[in-house]
Amino acid sequence: xxxxxxxxxxxxxxxxxxxxxxxxxxxxxxxxxxxxxxxxxxxxxxxxxxxxxxxxxxxxxxxxxxxxxxxxxxxxxxxxxxxxxxxxxxxxxxxxxxxxxxxxxxxxxx
Length: 110
Description:
This protein has helices at residues 2-24, 36-44, 82-95; strands spanning 52-55, 59-62, 65-68, 71-74. The protein is an alpha+beta fold.
């Protein structure tokens, strides 16, 4: 149980970090569940620009394709989008001290 809780906390930290960066960059953020039908509709309407997931090890993982029932969509030509790329570069840069940490996330231990 403790290991599962640790993973949940770590994943939450990545999500919160992404949200804070996006807001800092002036990119609108909405924290709500999004039905897959809405994602597919946005794609078919030409409004879906990029999709990505977050996780502790992957940090940011772009999603290039989705298949739901008989519907198959390719997102951004199967390539990483500009927002996902920027988030990945910024987060890993802060984690490795290659970029400044404007939030005070990095703490020296030991």
